[in-house]
Amino acid sequence: MSKRLTVEFIFIGFETTMSAKKDKRKVASHCDWMSQLPPKLHNIPLYDLAIPGSHDSMSYDLDINSSIIEPDRLQRLSKIYCVRKIVRKWAITQETITKQLDAGVRYFDLRIARKARDHDPTRLYFCHGLYTHTDVETVLKVIRDWAERHPKEILILALSHFKGFDKANSAQLHRHLIGFIVTLFGAKLIHIRDVPTLRSCWDKGRNVIISYDYPTTQHGEIWSKIPYFYGDTMNTTKIEAKLQHILEKARPVRFGDNFFVCGLNLTLPEDARTLQYILRPCDNLANVIRRGLPRLLQWTKRQAAKTPVNIVASDLVTCDDFIQTVIELNALKSTRA
Predict the structure, then answer these.
(1) What residues pair up with 229 in beta bridges, in sequence order?
(2) Exposure string for 300-330, b = 16+ CB within 10 A, e = fewer
(3) Contacts of 192 (CB under 8 A, 6+ apart)
(4) How far apart are the two ends of the chain, measured CA to CA in Å?
(5) Is the dihedral of CA 184, 186, 189, 193 positive or negative?
(6) How far apart are CA 50 and CA 328, in angstroms?
(7) Catalytic-role residue among 30, 42, 55, 161
(8) Is residue 152 included in any domain, yes or no?
(9) Is 191 tagged catalytic?
(10) To 10 degrees, what angle do helices 81-89 and 3-13 make?
(11) pLDDT in tens, 15-58
């Protein structure tokens, strides 16, 4: 047996013997925090505001009975239940989309996928390691209903990945999904020709931005991909260093006059190093993130005093003081406005 297979069998044979304690602290509701910002901030571009965002927003809904989408090296082990169980354990982070909205999240990382051999040719799901239980159209309707109840809260939906969109069906699936979005949100969609501010969005009755990571020129309501910067590591010190370099030195094209995301999320290694995390009997990704998030939030506050900060995204957005901390960054912007 090869060393690689030996490692994989160690991986799939592991099961947790104890469950981690749940964080029972209540998270404050910020259902309408945008409408409560100081008037000075009502007329500045939205990409000059500090906006809480969620990374892998649908990770709470993963279906343990689905096939494994990623990592690639485990796809052939999809039929083994304990493998799917471990993938799910280390992929679940967020709470429901409604809880995220109520808590104050305004940017959503929505990763789209189509199941192979689905008898419905246009039915789509979300993914993060596994497929979700709930299909895309159902979740988007929930978001639309929430947006109608909170017309002064601006939502940014970033659609990406599009797993299972192959050459034979890609064009049809994109047409169907974009058509559904345009019909569903209708007059609530903010046009790409606009420089959106809170005031301009409120005056026009528009409060949804769709960011779509696939070229489309047919619809003025569909925005291009929003840059997402992250550390690609589990080490919080390295995450801080990489984001600081981007914000202070790299200065991406159009940085400062368009949306951009600073991702505080931790990322598991894609090689054998991941075993040092997944083989911990009483641990999971949510707990690791919970331990590192306070430090990352302190860094974010220090960094925001030096450079522009727009969307700040994390896993476990309803945990601790993440949302409150990001919203409070707007106090700095208010004094500068």
Answers:
(1) 262
(2) beebbeeeebbbbbbbbbbbbebbbbbbebb
(3) 220, 221, 222, 223, 224
(4) 65
(5) positive
(6) 8
(7) 55
(8) yes
(9) no
(10) 80
(11) 333 333 344 344 457 999 999 999 999 999 999 999 999 999 99
Q: Is 119 exposed, middle or buried (0-12, 13-18, 19+ CB in 10 A)?
A: exposed
List the CATH number of the domain containing 252.
3.20.20.190
Domain annotation covers residue 15: no
The total of structural domains in the chain comes to: 1
Distance CA 232, CA 123 (A): 31
Cis upstream peptide for 39 (omega within 30°): no
Give the C-alpha separation, 115 to 81, whole Å: 18
Give residue 80's domain range: 30-336
Q: Which residues sit opposite 156 in a β-bridge?
A: 107, 209
Which residues in the chain land under pLDDT 50? 1-27
Please count the other Cβ atoms lying within 10 Å of the Cβ belonging to residue 17.
7
Q: Which residues are bridge partners to 163 per DSSP?
A: 113
2 part of a folded domain = no
What whole-number distance in Å separates Cα of residue 93 and Cα of residue 290?
A: 10
| Residue whose structure tokens are 């988007």 | 140
| Both tokens assigned to 244 | 């600081």
Residue reference for tokens 């109840």: 149
* pLDDT tens digits along 162-213: 999 999 999 999 999 999 999 999 999 999 988 999 999 999 999 999 999 9
- Catalytic hit among 128, 133, 174, 176: 128
SS3 track for 54-69: ECCCCHHHECCCCCEC
Asked about 128 being catalytic, the answer comes back as: yes
Please count the other Cβ atoms lying within 10 Å of the Cβ belonging to residue 255. Answer: 17
Give the global pTM: 0.89
d(Cα 51, Cα 34) in Å, to the nearest integer?
A: 9
* Residue for token pair 């009483």: 282
In-domain check, residue 108? yes
H helices present in the chain, as ranges: 3-13, 81-89, 97-103, 136-149, 170-185, 198-204, 236-245, 275-278, 285-304, 322-328, 330-336
